[in-house]
Amino acid sequence: MDNRLKKLRLEKNISQQKLANEIGVTRQAISLFEKGEREPRLETWIKLAKYFDVPKEYLQGSMSYSEYKKLKESRDKTFYYVDKIEKIMSKMLKEPNKSEKYTKEIYREFDSIKKELENMQNFRQ
Fold this sequence. Notes:
Oligomer: single chain
Structural class: mainly alpha
Distance between the termini: 20 Å
């Protein structure tokens, strides 16, 4: 399977040199990685995945685009619920007399997060 390094780099419109500088390897290494002539070490795959904000498996080509999109949607939903919890907690601090109401809302949002995490876990198996 071909990795998606070159595709993602071009989508971001960055040079091999800039990417190399960002993750701490040489431009030549990036070129070899993109051609599949050299395999990055695990720590380099992780740096690349973080840089492009994609799962390592997607970058390596072992995860399909549709799988990546499903995983990203679950992750985005999880962050959405976390943001909601932060807002509820802020309200709760301003209105301590309504803490029971807000506590129930927070538990409801935690349940949503648990479901998304289960979806991610089931997806990865």
